[in-house]
Specification:
Helix content is 52%, strand content 9%.
Length: 324
């Protein structure tokens, strides 16, 4: 066995060991389960120590690939599983709550986070007060598709930027519901080790395809089924079906109404509206929170909505503008 192969083997063993210890320190009654790599890893480890209730949300009006993967994991690890079919009526109510709690009208953030809110509500309805999530794995191990084609040096720089600005809506939404989320990937000891793993082990080719989280995937080969280990990164909006919302809002809002309203909001509020979904969320934001304005006039300000942006960030959490 070559020294490189030994390094990979040792890194895999260390990842499994540290993450299992992290899970043991962060046990919960439930898990928000998408059937993706990250939540499946946490389910596999936590189920060794705790009888878990798993919760999966699927938008009733669109395909939801997460469901079948989640079913596979719950069967494999004998988890009690609740699948909630999210209706359009329920979604509209949940959107208002999500936007009010997160103080954001960024479509991508809202499409993902509304699923988390509904999932948390289902857990609470089942009497669960603490839940596990897979948050943090993509940020630590370069799981996002936009990171795949960087050189190792560039990847390290991009990950550093992500680590400085990382934030998870699950924490805010759980706090709103008086619940608690546990994030084993962000346990201090595990996080410290993960940040030191070489970028070449985070993004690598396997069977002709380029994968993020490569070393994390290798660490759980043989523990999880191959179709889970090598499942392509699927954002919550795609796995749950809420990625269809732009199409739905496009059909619901007339072009003339969109043009008039977006023009007026730019003139009156200084907010640039990108599409009909963005308009829908902004109108909720405006009614619940008000017109965006900077709290710190000396700080960095988003040119698209006038909200403050964290120094060094190229993304606006309020409106979703990128790059700024």
């Amino acid at each position: 066995m070559t020294s490189e192969a030994l390094d990979i083997k040792d890194t895999c063993l260390k990842i499994r060991s540290l993450l299992e210890e992290s899970v043991k320190r962060n046990l919960a009654e439930g898990i928000l389960l998408s059937g993706g790599l990250d939540t499946s890893i946490i389910a596999a480890l936590a189920s060794k120590y705790q009888k878990l209730k798993a919760f999966t949300v699927a938008f009733a009006e669109a395909p939801s690939p997460d469901v079948e993967y989640a079913k596979q994991i719950t069967k494999m690890f004998k988890l009690e599983h609740t699948i909630h079919k999210l209706t359009m009526k329920e979604l509209k109510t949940a959107l208002r709550t999500t936007i009010r709690v997160l103080k954001s009208f960024d479509p991508m953030e809202i499409r993902n986070s509304v699923v988390i809110l509904v999932d948390l509500k289902e857990a609470k309805k089942a009497g669960v007060k603490t839940v596990l999530t897979g948050d943090g794995a993509d940020e630590l191990f370069a799981g996002y598709s936009f990171l795949l084609n960087y050189s190792p040096e560039e990847l390290n720089r991009e990950l550093q930027k992500i680590w400085e600005n990382v934030h998870f809506s699950s924490q805010d939404l759980a706090a709103y519901l008086k619940m608690k989320v546990k994030l084993p990937f962000l346990d201090d000891e595990f996080q410290s080790f993960a940040k030191q793993v070489e970028p070449e082990l985070k993004v690598q080719r396997e069977n002709g395809s380029l994968y993020g989280k490569w070393i994390l995937r290798k660490a759980f080969e043989g523990i999880l089924p191959p179709n889970i280990v090598w499942r392509v990164k699927t954002p919550i909006e795609q796995g749950s079906g809420t990625a269809f919302l732009p199409q739905i809002f496009d059909e619901l809002i007339k072009d003339t109404d969109f043009e008039e309203k977006s023009r007026n909001y730019l003139l009156e509020d200084g907010v640039e509206i990108r599409d009909k979904e963005h308009l829908t969320y902004y109108e909720i934001y405006r009614s619940k929170i008000g017109v965006p304005s900077p709290k710190d006039s000396e700080g960095k300000i988003c040119p698209k909505c006038n909200s403050n942006v964290k120094k060094g960030s190229t993304y606006c959490r309020t409106c979703g503008a990128y790059p700024i």
